[in-house]
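Trying the structure run again after the queue cleared.
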Amino acid sequence: MLDTRPLLLQTDFPAINRSVLETLQVNLGYKCNLSCTHCHVNAGPTRTEQMDRKTVDLVLEFYSQTSDKNPRPDWRRSRDKR
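Done. Tokens:
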């Protein structure tokens, strides 16, 4: 694979800085009763892959360390006013 890091260092493009985590989506598997052409994980009824237990445990550990489990309650109120 071509190492592109040196090319990125030679640009004036601003650095990408990660902000706070706002959304955590966890896909436990790819089996789905639908076959949507727009599915971003290409899930469907014939897929059988599932997240292994070690990865599930890591996700749960990460989630348990987050401070706010419902960070946007104001979003619900503003949505209900529409």
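DSSP finds three helices and no strands in the chain. Worth checking whether this holds up in the mutant runs.
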